[in-house]
């Protein structure tokens, strides 16, 4: 049994320190996954928190023979998909865009060039590049998350990186 599965078993028995350790190990990956799917920092943070609340309440249901990391990431992915469906059913917001806080606006300006470069990629390639480079997911894990073949994920990743390289060469 790997470390994640051991921690899930402990969390399932009510061990808060095990949950904290899971959060430290997988929190960044969950956040990057949510951000790559939802595209909004606030929504990704919400999904991060909701994911670990679900892990805490459902850890006892995890099958020890299955990958704990994949189980947690599937929870996050499903929460993201639920949000996307809810937003689609709700239609456009009438309130307009929220104002950004000072630090968020500063962060936005700092990352504007990277966001512009990533924005040039097709959506699937952008998700794959972010999940691999920012969250550290392996290609097989990304393939499982996105329901794609690993070879397709790798091709999209390398094509995306090539596009980013060309973008920065031109700049």
Question: How would you characterize this protein structure?
Answer:
This protein is mainly alpha-helical. Helices cover 77% and strands 0% of the residues. The chain has helices at 3-12, 16-38, 41-58, 68-90, 102-110, 112-119, 123-134, 139-146, 150-170. Residues 94-110 have low confidence and may be disordered.
Ends: how far apart? 48 Å
The helix content, as a percent range, equals over 70%
Poorly predicted runs:
94-110
Number of strands: 0
Find the structural class using helix and strand composition.
Answer: mainly alpha
Proportion of residues in extended strands: under 5%
Number of helices: 9
Q: Based on CA inertia axes, which overall geometry fits?
A: globular
Largest sheet: none
On the 0 to 100 scale, the average pLDDT is 81
Structural Rg: 18 Å
Question: What series of H and E elements makes up the topology?
Answer: HHHHHHHHH
Briefly characterize the structure.
This protein is mainly alpha-helical.
List the helices and strands and how they pair.
Elements: H1 3-12, H2 16-38, H3 41-58, H4 68-90, H5 102-110, H6 112-119, H7 123-134, H8 139-146, H9 150-170
Throw out a few tags for this protein.
171 residues, 0% strand
